[in-house]
Specification:
alpha+beta, STM4215-like, Immunoglobulin-like, six-stranded mixed sheet, 4 helices, about 15% helix, elongated
Length: about 325
C-alpha cells in the first residue's frame, strides 16, 4: 500500500502546479531535494524550478486546541532555479526562471484555489480527505533568511552541490489534520428569547451657541445659563447636574435641574433647554451629567447617562 497524501504534501504540490501553469514550456517545476533536482537538470534540455521545504514552524496563533482538532503550521520553502545542462541555455537562465517565479508569487500571493480539494477517485482508504478536513487558502509570503541560514541549508545537502541563488517563502497556514476528528456540534434546533422591563435609552445632548452644536463650550465669567439641545424619547423626564471643579481645586455639585424631552430632532428649536450655572468664575471647569428620570423624578437607572458635556469659564 502506497503512503497516502497529507495536507502538507497537497499544499506543496498544488503550489508547484500553480507556478508551473505560469512558467514557459521549457521549465519543469518540482518538489524535491536540491541534490536530485540538480542532477536531473544536468541531464536535461529543460530548466528546473524546485520547491524545497527546509523548515516547519507552529502557527503561533491557535491555542488551547484538543488532539481531535487540526493544528496549523508555517512551511519555510526555498525556491531554486537549476538551468538545463544541455541545449546551450543562456548564461542567465537561472535568473530568468527564478525571476518569473517571483513575479508569479508577488502577483498572486494567495492561492486562487481552495485546498485540499475533493477526494481523488483513486485515493487510498487512509487518505486524510476521506474524513472531515479543514478548507484553507494558501498564502505565500516572501522571506529574508540570513546568509548563515542559507549557507547551512546548502552545506547540509551533501555531495558537491554548489550554492545557488534562491528565494525563500513562507506558506501559511497549512492544517495538519488529526487522526480522529472531534464530532461537529449539533445545529441549533430552537431559540428561546426572554424579554423583560429594561432601562430606557439615554438621551443625547449638545451645547448650542450661535446656531452651532458643541460638546465643549467656553463661557465668560458670571455667565448665568448655558443653552443645550437635548433629544431622545419625547415626554421623557431628564435631570441635568452641573459638577464644578473650581479654579482653586474645590469640587461642587449644583442641585439637579429637571426638564422634559420634547423631540428627537436635534436641529429643532423644541430641543432647546437652558441650564442655570451657579457662580461661574474665571478658571472654573464643569461637566454636565444628564440622565433619564422616572415620573417621580427619581433616576431611571444609576448607570444610564447621556453623553458628557464639558464647560470652561474664561476671563
Amino acid at each position: 500500500m502506497a503512503t497516502p497524501e497529507s495536507s502538507l504534501s497537497v499544499a506543496l504540490q498544488e503550489l508547484a502546479e500553480f507556478i508551473a501553469g505560469q512558467m514557459a514550456d521549457d521549465v519543469i517545476v518540482s518538489v524535491d531535494v536540491p541534490n536530485r533536482v540538480s542532477k536531473a537538470a544536468e541531464d536535461s534540455d529543460k530548466h528546473h524550478l524546485n520547491l524545497f521545504t527546509y523548515r516547519l514552524a507552529p502557527s503561533g496563533i491557535h491555542a488551547d486546541q484538543s488532539m481531535q482538532e487540526p493544528f496549523f503550521v508555517r512551511a519555510q520553502v526555498l525556491v531554486t532555479a537549476f538551468p538545463a545542462g544541455k541545449g546551450n541555455p543562456p548564461a542567465d537562465a537561472d535568473l530568468r526562471v527564478l525571476g518569473q517565479a517571483m513575479r508569479v508569487l508577488s502577483s498572486v500571493p494567495v492561492m486562487p484555489v481552495v485546498l485540499p480539494g475533493a477526494l481523488p477517485v483513486d485515493a487510498e482508504p487512509e487518505d486524510f480527505r476521506a474524513v472531515q478536513t479543514t478548507q484553507y487558502r494558501l498564502q505565500v509570503v516572501f522571506q529574508a533568511p540570513t546568509m548563515e541560514e542559507l549557507n547551512h541549508i546548502w552545506t547540509t545537502q551533501g555531495g558537491e552541490l554548489p550554492y545557488r541563488l534562491s528565494a525563500a517563502y513562507e506558506l501559511a497556514l497549512i492544517p495538519i489534520e488529526p487522526l480522529v476528528h472531534a464530532a461537529p456540534p449539533e445545529p441549533v434546533q430552537a431559540v428561546e428569547l426572554l424579554s423583560g422591563v429594561g432601562t430606557q435609552a439615554a438621551p443625547f445632548q449638545m451645547f448650542v451657541s450661535a446656531g452651532r452644536l458643541f460638546s465643549h463650550l467656553e463661557v465668560a465669567a458670571a455667565t448665568a445659563t448655558a443653552d443645550l439641545r437635548v433629544v431622545g424619547q419625547p415626554e421623557t423626564r431628564i435631570g441635568v447636574t452641573v459638577e464644578w471643579v473650581r479654579a482653586g481645586g474645590a469640587t461642587q455639585r449644583q442641585p439637579e435641574q429637571t426638564f422634559t424631552v420634547a423631540t428627537t430632532d436635534i436641529d429643532s428649536g423644541a430641543a432647546g433647554i437652558s441650564v442655570a450655572l451657579t457662580g461661574a468664575a474665571a478658571g472654573d471647569r464643569a461637566v454636565l451629567y444628564t440622565q433619564p428620570l422616572n415620573a417621580d423624578d427619581t433616576p431611571l437607572s444609576e448607570k444610564v447617562y447621556a453623553n458628557l458635556l464639558q464647560l470652561t469659564v474664561g476671563a
